[in-house]
Every structure is written in structure tokens, then in C-alpha cells.
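User: Please fill in residues for this 332-position structure.
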């Protein structure tokens, strides 16, 4: 065969991942369970437990535990993702993360000192981020390109559905912390087992075992310093750097309020008679999640139609800052 003959050969087609029946609903369940744990435990059960242990120092202690556990979350997500990439499989990491989270949540519900609560929550962050890293990779791994928009939309629904369900569960079990932690452990373990039982692993990126082996070998051959440099080089791009800074500040502002919402409602807001802070959160969270889902869809459609991004970022940031003043002026 001559060089010209080779050149005339059609380029090999990239194989799409095989379609798996029921994958999208199971992905929705998996992501909803994950957000239920993050919102229900992180915003209700954990603050309640810390307040019971150290009522006078609860704010500082919650901040300390939250800050240290965030380091575990930040580290374990890329580590677990890289290990699952190298293995070429997601299901073992999903199952292991879900079952380990059940054990860690059970441990967290059984301790009664600040040190052990901190250790338990760090372990939960580590195991949950192992689960999260593998679940997040399923959309590019197993969903054909033409259906990834639908898949991403369903995955995005995990936040309002799971967040609402998580806070509702937590508000009902705040008086029985051990039971509450066990319920959330069972939820995440069941979601992991459902997904891994009914949806099989496929070669990563849908390009076949040979391509996966080649990618893994190339990644392993690259020096660690070069890989870190490539990762950090993204921040050298002007637009990406400012998008990164803006998103980081947005997340910081959001979770600075949401993480302390139970204490804000209990210590600074005049609640109606007979309404406890956990019950108030069970009222507020569904409202906020519905508003979040609607604004996300409407904002995305309008920004696409008008082909404008900055005006939506600016207006939404200004509105967010403005409404933060309302509970200061009128704490009801």
C-alpha cells in the first residue's frame, strides 16, 4: 500500500459509548442522593450536632471544621478522579465511595466530642468526593454526544431535588442525630448500589480499550511537574482567570450564608411562634431551590438568545448583594 493509498483511507470513526437503558434516571438518583447528603447533613445535622456540643463556640467551631474538611474535599476529588481514570472503571469507585460514606456517616452520628465530629466530617468529605468524582465522569464516559445536553440538564436537577429532600429529611431527624445520619448513609449507599448494579462500566471516553490504554500510558509518561504546570497554566489566560475568581467568590458568598443558615435563623431572625430553625429551613429550602432552578433555565435561555453573558453576571451579582441586606434591615 502506497503513501497516497494510506492518505486516501477514511479516518477511523470515534465509537460512541453504547446506550444504556435507565442510565439517565439512575444518574438523577445518584446526583440527588449526593446533594441530599451535602445539604441535609452540611446545613442542618452537622450545625445542630456542633451546637449541642459547644453552644457558646458553635460558630467558630463550625467554621474550623468546615474549613479543614474542605481541604479533604478539595484533595480527594481530583485524586479519586485520577485513580478512576487510570483504572478505566467508575463503578468500583462509586460503590466504594457510597458504602464508605455510609460507614463514616454512622460514625459521625455516634460521636459527641468536637474532635471526633471534625474527624468524622473530614472522612465523610473524603468518601463523598470519591463517589462524586466517579459519578461526574459518567456523562462523558457513557452518554452519546447527541444526548449530553439532556443528561447534563437531568444531572443539574439533582441540586434542587436532592437539596430539598435532604433538608426535609434532616429537619425531621434533627432531634435524633444518630438516626438522621444513618438515613443519609443508607440513601447514598443505596444510590451507589443501584447505579453500579444496573449500569455496567464501559471503556473510558467511549473510544475503546486500545485508546484508553494509550491515553493512560501517555498520562503516566508525563512528568508530574509538567502535568501540574499544565493544570496551573489555565489561570494565565485572562478570561479564564477572571471567570475562576468570580465563580470562587460566588461560591464563597453563597456557602458563607447557607452553611450558617441554621444559626442565622435561630439567633438573628424572629421566627413565627412555634417554628424551630430546622422547620424554618424545611420551608425556605424548597422555595429557594425552585427559584434557583427557574432562574437557571430562564437566565440560560435568555443569555443564549441575546448572546450576552456579562450583563447577566452583573445584574445577578447586584441583585444577590442587594437581597443580602434585607435580613439585616428586617430580620423577620
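Assistant: Residues filled in for all 332 positions:
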Amino acid at each position: 500500500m502506497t503513501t497516497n493509498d494510506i492518505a486516501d483511507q477514511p479516518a477511523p470513526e470515534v465509537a460512541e459509548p453504547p446506550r444504556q437503558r435507565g442510565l439517565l434516571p439512575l444518574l438523577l438518583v445518584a446526583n440527588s442522593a449526593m446533594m441530599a447528603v451535602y445539604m441535609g447533613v452540611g446545613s442542618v445535622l452537622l450545625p445542630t450536632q456542633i451546637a449541642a456540643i459547644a453552644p457558646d463556640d458553635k460558630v467558630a467551631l463550625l467554621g474550623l471544621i468546615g474549613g479543614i474538611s474542605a481541604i479533604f474535599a478539595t484533595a480527594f476529588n481530583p485524586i479519586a478522579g485520577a485513580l478512576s481514570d487510570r483504572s478505566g472503571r467508575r463503578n468500583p469507585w462509586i460503590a466504594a465511595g457510597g458504602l464508605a460514606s455510609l460507614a463514616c456517616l454512622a460514625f459521625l452520628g455516634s460521636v459527641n466530642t468536637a474532635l471526633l465530629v471534625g474527624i468524622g466530617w473530614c472522612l465523610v468529605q473524603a468518601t463523598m468526593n470519591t463517589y462524586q468524582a466517579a459519578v461526574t465522569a459518567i456523562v462523558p464516559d457513557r452518554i452519546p454526544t447527541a444526548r449530553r445536553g439532556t443528561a447534563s440538564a437531568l444531572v443539574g436537577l439533582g441540586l434542587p431535588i436532592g437539596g430539598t429532600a435532604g433538608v426535609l429529611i434532616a429537619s425531621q431527624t434533627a432531634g435524633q442525630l444518630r438516626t438522621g445520619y444513618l438515613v443519609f448513609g443508607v440513601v447514598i449507599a443505596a444510590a451507589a448500589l443501584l447505579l453500579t448494579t444496573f449500569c455496567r462500566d464501559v471503556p473510558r471516553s467511549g473510544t475503546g480499550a486500545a485508546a484508553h490504554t494509550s491515553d493512560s500510558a501517555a498520562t503516566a509518561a508525563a512528568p508530574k511537574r509538567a502535568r501540574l504546570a499544565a493544570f496551573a497554566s489555565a489561570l494565565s489566560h485572562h478570561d479564564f482567570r477572571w471567570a475562576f475568581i468570580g465563580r470562587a467568590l460566588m461560591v464563597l458568598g453563597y456557602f458563607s450564608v447557607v452553611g450558617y443558615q441554621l444559626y442565622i435563623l435561630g439567633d438573628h431572625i424572629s421566627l413565627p411562634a412555634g417554628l424551630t430553625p430546622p422547620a424554618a429551613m424545611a420551608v425556605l429550602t424548597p422555595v429557594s431551590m425552585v427559584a434557583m432552578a427557574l432562574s437557571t433555565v430562564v437566565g440560560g435561555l435568555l443569555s443564549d438568545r441575546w448572546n450576552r453573558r456579562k450583563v447577566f453576571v452583573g445584574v445577578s451579582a447586584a441583585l444577590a448583594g442587594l437581597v443580602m441586606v434585607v435580613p439585616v434591615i428586617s430580620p423577620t
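For context: The chain has two domains: 23-221, 227-329.
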